[in-house]
Fold each of these.
Amino acid sequence: MAEESPDSAYHSNGSSLEEEAERMEDEEQERLLSYWQSVGRGHQVDVPRDMAEPIQQLTRNNSPQERQTIPFTLIQRKEKLGDLLYEKRQYGKAKWACIKMEEKQYEQSICLGFMKLMRYICEQNSSGLYLGITIPIVTIVHTNEAQSEMRQSVTVAYYLPEVLQDEPPHPFDSDIIIEEWPSTIVYSRSFRGITNEDSIMREINLLAEILESPELCLQDTFIIAGYTNPAAANRHNEIWFLQRP
């Protein structure tokens, strides 16, 4: 009986290790997809199978060290009895990848919009590269002038990392548009939990009451800034009022 050579044993073990690693990778991908599909059902959104790879890639690169926070200049912090009421900030001119959504519910719009942006971030772009996570992901929402009702149309937007600002990769998805936003002063207030029509209107009305001069801001356009993905249970969000140009 011929003895197995050291080389063939090495290759055999190497192959089995690679196969085991591949199997574990596939299992992790399935687990993450299943989790997102479960969350999606809660928002009445179907998460398709082709999202498995972007979800896995984004999850791997979603440690705090990997995320780039959108730069801003802090102008003022308004506090009361030690509690932060709001911050006044200036954000510089920058390019964003934007997608307009008009689903029946706000949560459906942000979930579906975020999935499209995830594909763009995860190599489905002209560079073929993973672009990197920036936070927050923002959603532009509109209300009537009385700020009593939210309109259906929203825009979900991803701030392009500093190294890509001059030459943003082109999205393969024609629904995603690269826009340059002007320098803007915002009034920002933090809140936690889910974001839906009711919670957003509540936060808009709350910040309007706190601000000394809310009339200096746009009365029908606001931004929801999300620091955690839509699948997270206890999300960290901000409501932004935009100072009139």
Amino acid sequence: QGQEKLSCNPKKENGTHVVLCELGNPMKAGARITVDMELSVSGLEDMGDAITFHLQLRSKNSPSHGSVTVTVPVEAEAEMELRGNSLPATMVLPTSWHGAPGSRRLEDHGIRVEHVYELHNKGPGTVSGVTLSLAVPHLLGEHVLLYLLELGTEGGANCSRHPALNPAQV
């Protein structure tokens, strides 16, 4: 009729985590009980896409036991945020400006513009295997719009080399 808190005891059996809950002692014949359980499980990063619970109902007075298997999907939740900045923020090239073909000096290929991108995990979960693809327009027709000089990372990230990166080896 009312609600009662269960007394549950966690323990390990044969390498498996077990939680034993006492539902009633003694329990009247024909009694019906509904149990809501809230479990907090940590370390699910490497569990795959589901976790399985095996529930058993045992009675000391009856040889019959009931069991059920419950599979709960595991979904990681993490919010990613991408921030970007260009230094200088704006740049205007004169219409008559032309690069010096064959030169190996940076200033003969244009004004240096640095693009910085920061990828942040705002949580709550951890992430791995994240791929960030940046499309940088380096040509406008047959003319060089941006001369891509170098690509660098910090914080253990890996980058794939762009085929148009520093083609004149400046």
Amino acid sequence: MADSTQNGPVPGGAGGGAVQFLMANKLDTAMWISRLFTVYCSALFVLPLLGLHEAASFYQRALLANALTSALRLHQRLPHFQLSRAFLAQALLEDSCHYLLYSLIFVNSYPVTMSIFPVLLFSLLHAATYTKKVLDARSSNSLPFLRNLLEKLSANQQNILKFIACNEIFLMPATVFMLFSGQGSLLQPFIYYRFLTLRYSSRRNPYCRTLFTELRIVVEHLIMKPSCPVFVRRLCLSSISFISRLAPTVA
């Protein structure tokens, strides 16, 4: 019976398999929809086709949708909530918890284009991965044009993750600048620093840690050239030493 059901015609035509797949994976489907909504809102913020006032509202919607996705993913990773320090420590190891915190940091702040790119690109990558699964459930050769776009996106995943890590790093000085320009809160740089240390220590995504190392190598290479002024070299070396002391210990 199981074999005949699996190999027989799918009810509802070619899309029946996709529908069954979506219904069988309700939590993943909910995250897929929220990620697609995040991509939609982020795109309308970056490209304000409906006006600048509407763009600000799309900025908040994108971060709220990302917070929802992160909360669902965190629930999927840690289904049994406990009000304890051990559970909190375990939750802080999850990337989904990091980006739940990230969304809460920026959702009520002045809209910053840099802050939306990590949300947009992570949502795009995860949505693309799940979309391929939906297409496979529908048919092995369905929508070849869309499949081609998804394959190109997947091929550039490493470069996209490095770009996200760059955004995460350079948002730290941006939050300080926002504070002095009157567009940020006093607590925002300190909370964002905590987020950045979590990203640096991430077990699943080492790109933030890798980018810090690469940036340090590039800066040290430039300042050691004879043409570099001495005061610039000293300033950069002091900054590198200060940032290195702030970096958390990674097991």
Amino acid sequence: MWHMLLSFSGLVALIQLLFLPFFPESPPYLLLQKEDKAGCLEAMKQLWGEGNYHTEFDDLMKEKAITKGTKIMNVLEVLRERSVYPQLCTMLLLLLSLQLCGLSAVETANLQESIIPYVSLGVSISELISIMFCSSIIDRFGRRTLLCGGYLLMALILVLLETSLLLSDQFLWLRYCSVILIFLFIIAYGIGP
């Protein structure tokens, strides 16, 4: 019944799509993009209830003044702008690490077919653990530390994973170690990158 599980995310998206028109626009969007001051204050009241939001409104006005001369660039202009190369490289590194992370190693672990659903469940649980753990420690350590530590931990886990996959034909118990290392890799990825 995996198709039912996959369709669940579509159902959630449909529910969100149906209720989206009833939610107000983002106050920063209304003020900075649409230049609608009254709409911005109204959205603040609708989102946060009655109150005095002059401090938040003043902060948005300062941000608007700072970004007033800033030109909105299209994708090609961003790619030509040398000042954003470090940020682009960081984003590309993160995206490539997700695509090339080696999670297909589950298939090469030569596990029994009856165990694979449990491995899939373990992957989901590992992602959940990483989200909860990361959200609780990110303020304490900061993003830079978590990124660097996450990449180092991922590199170590991948070395161990490759070793366990190479030796899994000689030692059958290493197949299960490979699965555990995959779970740890997912947790390291979720905490870091």
